[in-house]
Amino acid sequence: MIRYNSGETEESHRPIQKLKGVVPSVEWPIIEPLIERVNALKSEKNAVVLAHNYQTPEIYHCVADFVGDSLQLAVQAQERDADIIVQAGVHFMAETSKLLCPEKTVLIPSLEAGCSLASSITGEDVRKLKNKYPNVPVVTYVNTSADVKAESDICCTSANAITVVESLGVERVILLPDEFLSQNVAAMTDVEIIAWKGRCEVHERFTAGELRAVRGSTPDLSILAHPECSPEVLEEADFAGSTSALIEYVREKRPEKVMMVTECSMSDNVSAEIGEGVEFIRPCNLCPHMKTINLQNIIESLELMRYEVTIPEDIATEARGAVQRMVDLGLKGQNFEGGTMKDIVVEDSLSLSSMETLSQ
Ligand code: 13P
Ligand code: SF4
């Protein structure tokens, strides 16, 4: 007989056991059949689930074949020997997988899984920027559409943005589209950065004042922040890096109390993995796009082979080049420690259209 409790049983190897402490056991009878169905469909169809670190614990711990940050997911898409990739993440991640693995079927379980950064800029915006800054290379954050990547020289993620910018060996780069990431990179390098006014709707909500208040009321707190937060927030943090760099920090240092200044599921996922001994202090913010992916729509995605990601070949060829050049640089990145804040130029649609008006 199956016992849905937190005690040791002969069935303690069941994937759902990994959710102890983060998902109440009363919910297990509802979740477990869904986990079993996803795992059966994966075997039947030779599919893998690649899940971003922001996915909920039942996806992250119970059905994902690989979990990671955007850079690690891109590398894994290429390395996995599967016919089908189900991207448990947002649309730009699924597009990146498709660019790197044109021969594989890539499915995204929800059409609502967008990203405020990806929707902040178009390929046409990048063409106008290139007119304004001829011969300045364009480095594009992977949180963009294939159309935008196609106009770029090379992509980057939060894990390797500093490394990629410096790899070009030039004095000035256009780094798109996250204003805060660009300011945070500018603080770490002598390369002059021209930015775009895009924001992550999750990370822009954190404030330095909020962090100071939590630190004031919580002695011995370690604060870890994602570089999509503002430079003021990063100044208050003890450490900043990609989602995987933040997880690695907690795994290695096991701080007594930690606040992960990023999407909420990160704390749940790390807490489920490392168990007792580290206290996770909220607040955190939810990404509404990441949260449109769930076990039910992963099942539907595999049963109905939906929603398949396709990219027009002319765009794909150019965009693939930009992503592949980043992957070819390797996984070694750099975290955001000890920078000096600088003023940088931040462009937007308005500043580009005023330039057009002047030239008429
Ligand atoms: P990472 O590449 O650090 O996982 O970040 C992706 C993302 O969308 C963060 O909001
Ligand atoms: Fe986009 Fe922000 Fe959500 Fe990441 S957390 S997917 S950057 S909206």
Characterization of this structure:
This protein is α/β, with parallel strands linked by helices and 360 residues long. The protein folds into three domains: 11-115 and 290-304, NadA-like (Rossmann fold), CATH 3.40.50; 118-199 and 330-359, NadA-like (Rossmann fold), CATH 3.40.50; 203-281, Rossmann fold, CATH 3.40.50. Helices cover 41% and strands 14% of the residues. The chain contains 15 helices and 13 strands. It has helices spanning 28-45, 57-62, 70-79, 91-100, 123-132, 146-150, 161-167, 179-186, 208-217, 231-236, 243-253, 265-274, 295-304, 313-328, 349-359, and strands at 47-52, 66-68, 84-88, 105-107, 138-141, 154-156, 172-176, 192-196, 221-225, 239-240, 257-261, 279-280, 345-347. The strands form three sheets. It has a five-stranded parallel sheet with strand order 6-5-7-8-13, sandwiched between helices. It has a four-stranded parallel sheet with strand order 2-1-3-4, sandwiched between helices. Strands 10-9-11-12 form a four-stranded parallel sheet. α3 packs parallel to α4. The longest helix has 18 residues, at 28-45. The protein is globular. The protein starts with 27 loop residues before the first helix and ends with a helix. The mean pLDDT is 94. The structure holds 1,3-dihydroxyacetonephosphate and iron/sulfur cluster. Residues 53, 69-70, 143, 157-158, 200, 226, 228, 242-243 line the site of 1,3-dihydroxyacetonephosphate (13P). Iron/sulfur cluster binds next to loops.
